[in-house]
Amino acid sequence: MRPEGTELLTGSIDCHIHACPHMNGRSVTVFDAVRQAAEVGQRAIVLMDNFQNSSGYAALAMQELQGQGVDVLGGIILQPTAGGICPETVRIALNYGYGSGTGARFVSLPTHHTRHVALQEGRTALQAESAFHIPSNGLVPDKVLEILDICAAQDVVFDCGHVSGPEAIRLSEVASERGVAHVRAHCSDYARDIVASIAQLGAYCEFSFFVLSHATQVGLTHADSEKHRISAVTLAQQVERIRAAGSQAIVSSDAGISLLAPPAETFRQYLVLLRAAGFEYSELRNMSRHAPAALFGIDLASSSHSRLE
What we know:
By secondary structure, the protein is of the alpha/beta class. It has a single domain (about 5-309), classed as Metal-dependent hydrolases (TIM Barrel), CATH 3.20.20.140. It is built from eleven helices and eleven strands. The protein has helices at about 30-40, 55-65, 85-95, 115-120, 125-130, 140-155, 165-175, 190-200, 235-245, 265-275, 280-295, and strands spanning about 15, 45, 70-75, 75, 105-110, 155-160, 185, 205-210, 220, 225-230, 250. The chain has a six-stranded parallel beta sheet with strand order 4-5-6-7-8-11. Helix 3 (about 85-95) links the parallel strand 4 (about 75) and strand 5. Helix 1 crosses helix 2, helix 3 (about 85-95) runs parallel beside helix 6 (about 140-155) and helix 7 packs parallel to helix 8. The chain is globular.
Protein backbone atom coordinates (compact mmCIF):
# COMPACT_ATOMS: atom_id res chain seq x y z
CA MET A 1 0.00 0.00 0.00
CA ARG A 2 1.48 3.35 -1.08
CA PRO A 3 1.70 6.21 1.44
CA GLU A 4 -1.01 8.86 1.44
CA GLY A 5 -0.55 11.50 -1.24
CA THR A 6 1.86 9.52 -3.40
CA GLU A 7 -0.37 10.35 -6.37
CA LEU A 8 0.42 14.05 -5.84
CA LEU A 9 4.01 13.37 -6.87
CA THR A 10 3.10 12.10 -10.33
CA GLY A 11 4.41 14.61 -12.86
CA SER A 12 5.64 16.95 -10.13
CA ILE A 13 8.82 19.04 -10.20
CA ASP A 14 10.91 19.52 -7.08
CA CYS A 15 12.97 22.58 -7.94
CA HIS A 16 15.15 22.65 -4.83
CA ILE A 17 17.12 19.55 -3.82
CA HIS A 18 20.49 19.44 -2.04
CA ALA A 19 21.78 16.02 -3.08
CA CYS A 20 25.13 17.41 -4.13
CA PRO A 21 28.28 17.17 -1.99
CA HIS A 22 28.24 19.39 1.09
CA MET A 23 29.87 19.83 4.49
CA ASN A 24 26.70 18.34 6.02
CA GLY A 25 25.64 14.73 5.53
CA ARG A 26 23.33 14.09 2.58
CA SER A 27 20.33 11.72 2.67
CA VAL A 28 20.89 10.68 -0.96
CA THR A 29 23.38 10.86 -3.79
CA VAL A 30 22.37 12.58 -7.01
CA PHE A 31 21.75 9.17 -8.59
CA ASP A 32 19.62 8.09 -5.61
CA ALA A 33 17.56 11.27 -5.92
CA VAL A 34 16.89 10.60 -9.61
CA ARG A 35 15.97 6.95 -9.10
CA GLN A 36 13.61 7.77 -6.24
CA ALA A 37 11.99 10.57 -8.26
CA ALA A 38 11.47 8.10 -11.11
CA GLU A 39 9.88 5.54 -8.79
CA VAL A 40 7.11 7.97 -7.85
CA GLY A 41 6.73 9.44 -11.34
CA GLN A 42 8.19 12.91 -10.85
CA ARG A 43 8.82 14.92 -14.01
CA ALA A 44 11.99 16.74 -12.97
CA ILE A 45 14.26 17.71 -10.11
CA VAL A 46 16.58 20.70 -9.75
CA LEU A 47 19.91 20.30 -7.96
CA MET A 48 21.14 23.07 -5.68
CA ASP A 49 24.75 23.20 -4.47
CA ASN A 50 25.71 25.93 -2.00
CA PHE A 51 29.38 25.72 -2.93
CA GLN A 52 29.74 24.77 -6.61
CA ASN A 53 28.04 24.63 -10.00
CA SER A 54 25.60 21.69 -9.93
CA SER A 55 25.06 21.52 -13.71
CA GLY A 56 27.88 18.99 -14.06
CA TYR A 57 26.15 16.62 -11.63
CA ALA A 58 22.87 17.14 -13.49
CA ALA A 59 24.45 16.46 -16.87
CA LEU A 60 26.14 13.31 -15.54
CA ALA A 61 22.85 12.03 -14.14
CA MET A 62 21.11 12.68 -17.44
CA GLN A 63 23.90 10.92 -19.31
CA GLU A 64 23.92 7.84 -17.11
CA LEU A 65 20.24 7.59 -16.08
CA GLN A 66 18.39 9.04 -19.04
CA GLY A 67 16.07 6.04 -19.18
CA GLN A 68 14.70 6.91 -15.76
CA GLY A 69 12.31 9.47 -17.28
CA VAL A 70 13.25 12.38 -15.02
CA ASP A 71 14.78 15.68 -16.17
CA VAL A 72 17.70 16.66 -13.94
CA LEU A 73 18.56 20.36 -13.96
CA GLY A 74 21.50 22.13 -12.37
CA GLY A 75 22.83 25.62 -12.00
CA ILE A 76 25.16 27.86 -10.10
CA ILE A 77 24.84 29.71 -6.81
CA LEU A 78 27.36 32.55 -6.91
CA GLN A 79 28.89 31.94 -3.51
CA PRO A 80 32.55 32.97 -3.10
CA THR A 81 33.57 29.30 -3.35
CA ALA A 82 31.88 29.03 -6.76
CA GLY A 83 33.44 32.17 -8.19
CA GLY A 84 31.37 34.89 -6.57
CA ILE A 85 29.47 37.63 -8.41
CA CYS A 86 31.35 37.17 -11.66
CA PRO A 87 29.87 37.27 -15.19
CA GLU A 88 32.63 35.05 -16.56
CA THR A 89 31.79 32.38 -13.96
CA VAL A 90 28.20 32.53 -15.21
CA ARG A 91 29.23 32.16 -18.86
CA ILE A 92 31.27 29.07 -18.02
CA ALA A 93 28.44 27.55 -15.97
CA LEU A 94 26.01 27.96 -18.87
CA ASN A 95 28.19 25.67 -20.99
CA TYR A 96 29.27 23.23 -18.29
CA GLY A 97 27.89 19.77 -19.07
CA TYR A 98 27.76 17.18 -21.84
CA GLY A 99 26.68 19.09 -24.89
CA SER A 100 23.93 21.50 -25.85
CA GLY A 101 21.22 22.11 -23.27
CA THR A 102 23.01 20.50 -20.34
CA GLY A 103 24.64 23.59 -18.82
CA ALA A 104 23.33 25.71 -15.96
CA ARG A 105 19.57 26.25 -16.05
CA PHE A 106 19.60 28.79 -13.23
CA VAL A 107 21.97 31.46 -11.95
CA SER A 108 21.55 32.38 -8.30
CA LEU A 109 22.92 35.21 -6.25
CA PRO A 110 24.52 33.99 -3.00
CA THR A 111 22.46 32.04 -0.53
CA HIS A 112 24.50 32.09 2.67
CA HIS A 113 26.98 34.87 1.87
CA THR A 114 24.40 37.67 1.99
CA ARG A 115 23.93 40.47 4.48
CA HIS A 116 20.36 39.30 5.09
CA VAL A 117 21.50 35.84 6.18
CA ALA A 118 24.48 37.17 8.14
CA LEU A 119 22.17 39.37 10.20
CA GLN A 120 19.68 36.55 10.71
CA GLU A 121 22.40 34.24 11.95
CA GLY A 122 24.00 36.80 14.26
CA ARG A 123 27.31 36.90 12.41
CA THR A 124 29.83 39.64 13.09
CA ALA A 125 29.28 43.19 11.86
CA LEU A 126 32.31 42.80 9.57
CA GLN A 127 30.85 39.65 7.98
CA ALA A 128 27.48 41.32 7.50
CA GLU A 129 29.04 44.42 5.96
CA SER A 130 31.20 42.46 3.50
CA ALA A 131 28.45 40.04 2.40
CA PHE A 132 26.40 40.59 -0.75
CA HIS A 133 23.57 43.10 -0.53
CA ILE A 134 21.73 45.72 -2.57
CA PRO A 135 22.62 49.22 -1.31
CA SER A 136 19.90 51.23 0.42
CA ASN A 137 19.77 53.56 -2.61
CA GLY A 138 18.54 50.63 -4.71
CA LEU A 139 21.40 50.74 -7.21
CA VAL A 140 22.07 47.18 -8.38
CA PRO A 141 25.82 46.52 -8.81
CA ASP A 142 27.12 46.57 -12.39
CA LYS A 143 28.24 42.94 -12.27
CA VAL A 144 24.74 41.86 -11.26
CA LEU A 145 23.31 43.89 -14.14
CA GLU A 146 25.66 42.10 -16.54
CA ILE A 147 24.58 38.74 -15.10
CA LEU A 148 20.95 39.70 -15.56
CA ASP A 149 21.66 40.51 -19.21
CA ILE A 150 23.31 37.11 -19.66
CA CYS A 151 20.28 35.38 -18.12
CA ALA A 152 17.97 37.31 -20.42
CA ALA A 153 20.00 36.47 -23.52
CA GLN A 154 20.33 32.77 -22.63
CA ASP A 155 16.74 32.47 -21.31
CA VAL A 156 17.75 30.87 -18.01
CA VAL A 157 16.37 31.40 -14.52
CA PHE A 158 17.71 34.28 -12.46
CA ASP A 159 17.46 33.43 -8.77
CA CYS A 160 17.53 36.27 -6.23
CA GLY A 161 19.31 34.11 -3.65
CA HIS A 162 18.80 34.59 0.08
CA VAL A 163 18.38 38.35 0.17
CA SER A 164 15.88 40.40 2.15
CA GLY A 165 12.33 40.99 0.93
CA PRO A 166 12.94 44.59 -0.22
CA GLU A 167 16.11 43.47 -2.03
CA ALA A 168 14.15 40.70 -3.78
CA ILE A 169 11.57 43.24 -4.94
CA ARG A 170 14.29 45.50 -6.33
CA LEU A 171 16.03 42.61 -8.09
CA SER A 172 12.73 41.44 -9.58
CA GLU A 173 12.03 44.97 -10.85
CA VAL A 174 15.43 45.33 -12.49
CA ALA A 175 15.31 41.80 -13.91
CA SER A 176 11.98 42.58 -15.56
CA GLU A 177 13.31 45.88 -16.94
CA ARG A 178 16.27 44.05 -18.50
CA GLY A 179 14.16 41.37 -20.14
CA VAL A 180 14.72 38.41 -17.82
CA ALA A 181 11.73 36.14 -18.39
CA HIS A 182 12.29 33.69 -15.52
CA VAL A 183 12.90 34.96 -11.99
CA ARG A 184 12.75 33.06 -8.71
CA ALA A 185 12.64 34.53 -5.20
CA HIS A 186 12.84 32.48 -2.00
CA CYS A 187 9.86 33.84 -0.10
CA SER A 188 9.43 31.59 2.93
CA ASP A 189 10.46 34.30 5.41
CA TYR A 190 9.00 37.32 3.60
CA ALA A 191 5.96 39.23 4.82
CA ARG A 192 2.70 38.79 2.92
CA ASP A 193 2.85 42.21 1.24
CA ILE A 194 6.43 41.60 0.10
CA VAL A 195 5.39 38.28 -1.46
CA ALA A 196 2.46 39.92 -3.22
CA SER A 197 4.73 42.62 -4.67
CA ILE A 198 7.22 40.05 -5.99
CA ALA A 199 4.43 38.03 -7.60
CA GLN A 200 2.94 41.14 -9.22
CA LEU A 201 6.31 41.75 -10.88
CA GLY A 202 6.03 38.33 -12.57
CA ALA A 203 8.64 36.54 -10.46
CA TYR A 204 7.95 33.10 -9.03
CA CYS A 205 7.77 32.85 -5.25
CA GLU A 206 9.26 29.66 -3.83
CA PHE A 207 8.17 28.12 -0.52
CA SER A 208 9.96 25.12 0.94
CA PHE A 209 9.30 22.38 3.44
CA PHE A 210 12.67 22.84 5.15
CA VAL A 211 11.61 25.97 7.03
CA LEU A 212 8.63 24.10 8.51
CA SER A 213 10.74 21.15 9.64
CA HIS A 214 12.63 20.06 12.73
CA ALA A 215 15.89 20.74 10.85
CA THR A 216 15.47 24.40 11.83
CA GLN A 217 15.89 23.46 15.49
CA VAL A 218 19.61 22.65 15.31
CA GLY A 219 22.69 24.44 14.10
CA LEU A 220 23.85 23.37 10.64
CA THR A 221 27.03 24.10 8.73
CA HIS A 222 26.04 26.33 5.84
CA ALA A 223 28.89 28.57 4.76
CA ASP A 224 31.90 27.81 6.92
CA SER A 225 32.91 25.67 9.89
CA GLU A 226 30.39 27.40 12.15
CA LYS A 227 26.92 26.02 12.78
CA HIS A 228 23.98 28.37 12.42
CA ARG A 229 20.23 28.01 12.70
CA ILE A 230 17.68 29.56 10.39
CA SER A 231 14.35 30.87 11.61
CA ALA A 232 11.45 28.46 11.49
CA VAL A 233 8.15 29.39 9.84
CA THR A 234 4.76 28.20 10.99
CA LEU A 235 2.39 26.46 8.61
CA ALA A 236 -0.17 29.24 9.11
CA GLN A 237 2.41 31.86 8.10
CA GLN A 238 3.41 29.90 5.04
CA VAL A 239 -0.17 29.30 3.91
CA GLU A 240 -0.84 33.05 4.10
CA ARG A 241 2.25 33.79 2.03
CA ILE A 242 1.49 31.14 -0.57
CA ARG A 243 -1.99 32.62 -0.95
CA ALA A 244 -0.40 36.05 -1.47
CA ALA A 245 1.72 34.66 -4.32
CA GLY A 246 -1.31 33.19 -6.09
CA SER A 247 -0.50 31.48 -9.38
CA GLN A 248 3.17 32.55 -9.02
CA ALA A 249 3.70 30.25 -6.03
CA ILE A 250 5.95 27.23 -6.34
CA VAL A 251 6.74 24.68 -3.64
CA SER A 252 9.86 22.60 -3.08
CA SER A 253 11.26 20.17 -0.56
CA ASP A 254 14.63 21.90 -0.01
CA ALA A 255 15.60 18.40 1.11
CA GLY A 256 18.76 16.35 0.87
CA ILE A 257 20.09 17.05 4.33
CA SER A 258 20.44 13.88 6.40
CA LEU A 259 18.04 15.18 9.09
CA LEU A 260 15.16 14.97 6.63
CA ALA A 261 13.72 12.09 4.65
CA PRO A 262 15.00 11.71 1.08
CA PRO A 263 13.72 14.44 -1.27
CA ALA A 264 10.87 12.53 -2.95
CA GLU A 265 9.48 11.42 0.41
CA THR A 266 9.91 14.88 1.94
CA PHE A 267 8.07 16.41 -1.02
CA ARG A 268 5.21 13.93 -0.56
CA GLN A 269 4.92 14.87 3.10
CA TYR A 270 4.89 18.54 2.20
CA LEU A 271 2.14 18.21 -0.41
CA VAL A 272 0.02 16.15 1.99
CA LEU A 273 0.52 18.83 4.66
CA LEU A 274 -0.53 21.59 2.28
CA ARG A 275 -3.60 19.60 1.24
CA ALA A 276 -4.53 19.25 4.91
CA ALA A 277 -4.06 23.03 5.26
CA GLY A 278 -6.82 23.61 2.69
CA PHE A 279 -5.20 23.77 -0.74
CA GLU A 280 -7.22 22.18 -3.53
CA TYR A 281 -5.80 19.57 -5.90
CA SER A 282 -5.65 22.09 -8.75
CA GLU A 283 -3.69 24.53 -6.59
CA LEU A 284 -1.24 21.85 -5.51
CA ARG A 285 -0.74 20.82 -9.14
CA ASN A 286 -0.04 24.39 -10.18
CA MET A 287 2.58 25.03 -7.51
CA SER A 288 4.26 21.63 -7.75
CA ARG A 289 4.05 21.09 -11.53
CA HIS A 290 2.80 23.83 -13.84
CA ALA A 291 4.43 26.87 -12.23
CA PRO A 292 7.89 25.25 -11.82
CA ALA A 293 7.64 23.95 -15.40
CA ALA A 294 6.96 27.50 -16.59
CA LEU A 295 9.82 28.86 -14.47
CA PHE A 296 12.39 26.39 -15.82
CA GLY A 297 11.01 26.06 -19.35
CA ILE A 298 10.22 22.35 -18.96
CA ASP A 299 7.99 20.91 -21.67
CA LEU A 300 5.55 18.75 -19.73
CA ALA A 301 4.61 16.83 -22.87
CA SER A 302 8.15 15.94 -23.97
CA SER A 303 10.46 13.04 -23.18
CA SER A 304 12.86 13.71 -20.33
CA HIS A 305 15.87 12.71 -22.39
CA SER A 306 15.06 14.85 -25.41
CA ARG A 307 17.69 17.40 -24.30
CA LEU A 308 20.43 14.84 -24.85
CA GLU A 309 19.33 13.83 -28.35
